[in-house]
Amino acid sequence: MLDKIQSNEILDRLPAHLQQYIKPQNYDNYTPVNQAVWRYVMRKNVQYLSRVAHSSYLEGLKKTGISIDHIPNMYGMNRILKEIGWAAVAVDGFIPPAAFMEFQAFNVLVIASDIRQLEHIEYTPAPDIIHEGAGHAPIIANPEYAEYLRRFGEIGCKAISSSRDYEIYEAIRLLSILKEAEDTPEEEIKAAEEKVDFLQNNIETTSEMAQIRNLHWWTVEYGLIGTPENPKIYGAGLLSSIGESTWCMTDKVAKLPYTIEAVKQDFDITKPQPQLYVTPDFAHLSLVLEEFANSMALRKGGLEGIQKLIDSKNIGTIELSTGLQISGDFTDVIEKDGKPVYIKTKGKTALSYREKELVGHGTENHPDGFGSPIGKLKGINLAIEDMSPRDLRAYDIYEGEDVKLEFEGGIVVKGEIITGTRNLQGKIILISFKNCTVTNGEKILFRPEWGRFDMAVGKEIISAFAGPADNYSFDLITHKTSSTTIKSKKTPEREELENLYEAVRHIREGKNTKFSLNAAFDILKKHHPKDWLLSVEIYELAVYKDQKLANEVLDHLENLKSKRPKTAHLIEDGIRMVNAQLVS
């Protein structure tokens, strides 16, 4: 995908499984109405947010080169973003949470390149370029926050999902698309909402990914900073919503101190949030993140970690105390006294060390699964991994020797040792056998006729996390979504309206001297009487050039306010912004 966009050294580091989500921005697809929507939101945001947003926001707008008047070209933004160590890519709407976070770990901002419809100018449940570009990008100019975002991605992409999480992701993606699209039948939206509600309310246990998504929502998306009594906005969802950025500052929204308890608070993307969390500073965000990370299988490992991987029904990795990493679809674990004593995968499996696949131990070498005992040998205090070459010789753990290894957990490995593999510290991490039988009591776990038996060495599982240790071990370029974003319909009426918006924009930019504001306003009133945003733009220009026309437009807008009560406050805000310019 990178061959189709303007890349740079940050984007060049992205692995292929992330590149599959990237798409060209296709800047020419933005219509004049899209540009007007961007301009209205940004003008209102900058005016309002200068009072209620964290100081990094306005500073970040300047640093990231985001214009108030034009939708940003994100690959042009990259020239500026790379100065603060970041980059941006375009994607189609929601992408899986793990991929979204992994992009962050690579210092790459994911931007949904579509833009909300005029009808949803205040808020859209679908990610769009206003939310991502005008919300996320400016704040990452703050170094402390940018490091939090990167670290969050690094930890978050290792969080283990449940098999239900992907269903929820697909359901939320579809709902956001349907709600953003024009003319979606109400019954379709209702059915999609009911499916999301059902999936979210029928979860037996909350996965790590679901919990860390909650933390992401209440900080990166909807975070406040300061004190509950005097908060400032830094969350991108608030920074990009001209409706909710005002709503969140009222007493109707509870302001709670941000703690690890936020991990338990679910959210609804389709509604204003009834409560928000306030962090005293950006450093506190990292403290809570580390507190949560300490509870993850990534750091705890053990029986709980391997069980989470089994429940996830996805590719995951365990790391043993020797540093050996086993990646695959974990299906079984034999336990004793609360500890795992034998683990098993099915299908393609790879062995790695320090995130690099071991030579001769890729998926082509282990195409049908992998199994191995875990733990110490029975009656021997010294673990295999801690044995010196002399110790190994003393216990006949030596090439060419027939050996019977009895583990504390009851697993017995009997066969002829072929060879051993050591790590850089000299610890033995893998022992290969031929003519090998592995048993657990009466149950046979491995037979000689199955070929070579590779036994992982490790007294315990120190880590378990989502995804493979080495991304190149597996074919991860398989993402397919069940839904795609819906584009606006092209009609003669719509095209005429777009042409009017473009003509007025050209007048504002001094590019059009033939088409008059009076002519544009006459056509607008006659053929598009419900449109309000272009009338605001005409009023903005007329107050400087033609007071008679300005008064006519103002009367028209006042009439629209009474006819369209749901947009009356937007019209009033537009008029107020124009009048504020006159005063200044």
From TrEMBL:
Belongs to the biopterin-dependent aromatic amino acid hydroxylase family. The keyword Iron applies. InterPro entries: ArAA_hydroxylase (IPR001273), ArAA_hydroxylase_sf (IPR036951), Aro-AA_hydroxylase_C_sf (IPR036329), Aromatic-AA_hydroxylase_C (IPR019774). CDD domains: arom_aa_hydroxylase. Keywords: Iron, Metal-binding, Monooxygenase, Oxidoreductase. Its cofactor is Fe(2+). The keyword Membrane does not apply. Pfam families: Biopterin_H. Coiled coil: none annotated. This is Aromatic amino acid hydroxylase. GO terms for molecular function: oxidoreductase activity.
